[in-house]
UniProtKB/TrEMBL annotation:
Belongs to the GST superfamily. Transmembrane segments: none annotated. It comes from Methylocystis rosea. This is Thiol:disulfide oxidoreductase. InterPro entries: Glutathione-S-Trfase_C-like, Glutathione-S-Trfase_C_sf, Glutathione_S-Trfase, Glutathione_S-Trfase_N, GST_C, Thioredoxin-like_sf.
Amino acid sequence: MIDLHYWPTPNGHKVTIFLEEAGLAYRIKPIDITKGDQFKPEFLAISPNNRMPAIVDRETADGGAPVALFESGAILVYLAEKTGRLLPTDLHARARTLQWLFWQVGGLGPMAGQNHHFAKYAPAKIPYAIERYRNETGRLYGVMDGQLAKTPFLAGEYSIADIACYPWIVPHEDQGQDLDDFPHLKRWFEAIHSRPAVIRAYAAGAPYERSRLDFTALEREILFGQTTERGGAK
């Protein structure tokens, strides 16, 4: 049994998709990031960066002590190695998969996240910031589209690289992107969207969903006003 500390964000969806694809038993322990659950001592003991998702694997491959892990990319690699699923063992295929996984972790996720923030959540609309992150998100969509013109999935076969990227494409309209402008990406998106495991993963998160725009002033401060004292950057 894997404890999944989770909230239905793109990074949270990455992990539920993998768990559903691999058929691993898990239980969701909701971390309501609008209420400050991410700052509770028991969660910080697992995720010192005060970010979800995080997991505790109580049935490790070596039969040893439980493994606690934070950072969605690291979790995907760990679970793939635990199960032998969705991360090739062939040297070249593995390298391609990790390349695209880290491309998402270092590029697509942060840039799309800033896109969301300045376009939807920032109290002051800053045209330069909105345009800058919308354009960079579009550039990254173009990178994916170019790769997917050559391969059915990012690294060839369906893998943790696709699982990592897909949830960040789901809100493409909010990011100011039209999938019709990226036909190969659109084909890939639709293929993943229809996978039964992906449908189950999003259904698992549905009970925790809420409007992303109806935050109270306190919730907004918790989400976006973190300080060094609370474990975030000013």
